[in-house]
Amino acid sequence: MSLNKVMLIGNVGRDPEVRYLENSGNAKVATFTLATTEKYRDRNGEMRENTEWHNIVAWRNSADVVERFVKKGTQLYIEGRIRTRSWDDQTGNKRYTTEILVDNLQLLGRKADNPASQGGYGAPTQSGYQSPQPYSGSQAGQPYGTQSYQQPVQPQAQPAAPAEDLPEDDLPF
Fold it and tell me: Which of 31, 65, 60 is nearest to 140 (CA)?
């Protein structure tokens, strides 16, 4: 048995690059970097940070979401799997790169940070991606494990105003 699973929460390091592959039936692919930062105290009690950079690759429907809603600085949750590729460079040296292939992604962060914070169809929600077309259920032509973000989303009720916004005489208890 084996398992190849990655879960990351981080910030996008550069605007995504989106391409269409002609030899793959015009499949869309988006690539970008994601930074994850670990904070810890060293032996002297000083705060230290260690930032890891990850190369992210999103295909088809995931690439659509990335193209529409992701930009430099966007906070994302990504589930995927690790893939290492190799190639020969111009001087004949063997080169390697390690990438994360996206299976699932969710936009995180504040609503104001979201380029689609106006809402409506096509806007990301807490439960995924909202689309005017109903989910077809077909995963044909998608790489193994890629999830479609075209699923129906029920409208969500607006949360109640935080207690600190209420006047003192209107306390809820």
Answer: 60
SS3 assignment, position 67: helix
Cα(10)–Cα(38) distance, integer angstroms: 10
127: CB partners within 8 A, 6+ apart = 153, 154, 156
β-partners of residue 46 are none
pLDDT range class, residue 86, cuts 50, 70, 90:
very high
- Count the alpha carbons within 13 Å of 74 in the hemisphere toward its beta carbon: 25
Looking at residue 112, what is its pLDDT? 63
Nearest to 61 by CA among 164, 145, 165: 145
Helix (H, G, I), strand (E, B) or coil at 157: coil
Enter the tokens of residue 150.
């075209």
Instruction: Please count the residues of the chain.
Output: 173
Q: Which of 72, 64, 148, 68 is nearest to 103 (CA)?
A: 148
